[in-house]
Write a structure and sequence with these properties.
This protein has 259 residues and is an alpha/beta fold. It has eight helices and seven strands; from the N terminus they run E-H-E-H-E-H-E-H-E-H-E-H-H-H-E. The protein has a seven-stranded parallel β-sheet with strand order 3-2-1-4-5-6-7, with helices on both faces. Helix 1 crosses helix 8, helix 3 runs parallel beside helix 4 and helix 4 runs parallel beside helix 5. It is globular, with a radius of gyration of 18 Å.
Length: 259
C-alpha cells in the first residue's frame, strides 16, 4: 500500500465547492477516501459531490452546506458526515473570510470580528466537535486521525492590505501548535498549510491585476503564482500515514516567496 493511500478514510473539507478545498477533495478521493463537500451553498457543494461521484463512483462524496459562522450548522456538518460515513478521520479547516482590504486603521469592528470569528473561532468549534471520536480511536490503538488548518503565508509576515486576515492566519498556526500538544497524547496530529498566492476566486483581488501579478512573479523564485492542485497534495500528505510523525507544524507552499 502507498504511504499516501486513503482507502477507508473519511475526509471532511470546509470551503470545498471551489479552489483549494475542491482540489483537495478530488485529490483525497483519488487516493480512495470518502469526502464531505461543504460550503455555504448546498447547490454548489452538491455539484462538486456529483462531479466526484461521477469520476470515482457513487457514494464517494456527499454535500452538506454549512456557514462557518454558524456553530449549529457546523455541528450538523459533523453529524451528517458521521451519519453518512460512520466516522471522520481527517478534518480540513479550509473555509475562511476576508471582507476587508486596506490599512488596519480603517477596518470596521464588525469586519475585524468576522475575520477572527470565521478564520479562528470556527476552526476551534469544528476541531472540538471531531476530536472526541479521534481520542476514542487513539485509546483503542487505532489511527486516531488528522486535523489540517489551511492558514497562509500572511500569518508569517506583515501586510498593509490584508492585515486582519494575516493576524487570523498567524493565530491558526498557534492554534495548531497548542492543539498538537493537547492531542498528541491521543495520537491526533494537528498541522497547518500556509499557501502563498494561489489562483482562486477567494484571492482574486490579489491576482486579477496584471501589473501586480507581474511584479509578484518577478519576486517569486518560481516566477509564478500557484494553482489549487499544488496545495491539494499537501492535504493528502497530512491526511495519510505518510505524515504520521508530523504534528504542530506549518507547511509553507509559496513558490519560494518567503525565503
Amino acid at each position: 500500500m502507498s504511504l499516501f493511500d486513503l482507502t477507508g478514510k473519511v475526509v471532511v473539507i470546509t470551503g470545498s465547492s471551489r479552489g483549494i478545498g475542491k482540489a483537495s477533495a478530488i485529490a483525497c478521493a483519488e487516493q480512495g477516501a470518502k469526502v464531505v463537500i461543504s460550503s455555504r451553498k448546498q447547490d454548489a457543494s452538491q455539484a462538486v459531490a456529483d462531479e466526484i461521484n461521477a469520476r470515482f463512483g457513487d457514494g464517494t462524496a456527499i454535500a452538506v452546506a454549512a456557514n462557518i459562522s454558524d456553530k449549529a450548522a457546523l455541528q450538523n456538518l459533523v453529524d451528517e458526515s458521521r451519519r453518512a460515513f460512520g466516522k471522520i478521520d481527517c478534518l480540513v479547516c479550509n473555509a475562511a473570510s476576508n471582507p476587508y482590504y486596506g490599512p488596519q486603521e480603517g477596518i470596521a469592528d464588525e469586519q475585524f470580528r468576522k475575520i477572527l470569528d470565521n478564520n479562528i473561532l470556527s476552526n476551534h468549534w469544528l476541531i472540538t466537535m471531531v476530536a472526541p471520536e479521534m481520542k476514542e480511536r487513539g485509546a483503542k490503538g487505532e489511527d486516531a486521525g488528522s486535523i489540517v488548518i489551511v492558514s497562509s503565508i500572511g500569518g508569517l509576515r506583515g501586510s498593509t492590505v490584508i492585515g486582519a486576515y494575516c493576524i487570523s492566519k498567524a493565530a491558526d498556526m498557534q492554534l495548531a501548535r497548542n492543539l498538537a500538544h493537547e492531542y498528541g497524547q491521543h495520537g491526533i496530529r494537528v498541522n497547518c498549510i500556509a499557501p502563498g498566492l494561489i489562483k482562486t476566486d477567494f484571492a482574486k483581488a490579489l491576482w486579477e491585476d496584471e501589473a501586480a501579478v507581474a511584479e509578484r512573479n518577478r519576486t517569486t523564485p518560481l516566477r509564478r503564482i500557484g494553482e489549487p492542485e499544488e496545495i491539494a497534495g499537501a492535504v493528502v500528505y497530512l491526511a495519510s500515514k505518510a505524515s504520521g510523525f508530523m504534528t504542530g507544524q506549518t507547511m509553507v507552499i509559496d513558490g519560494g516567496v518567503t525565503i
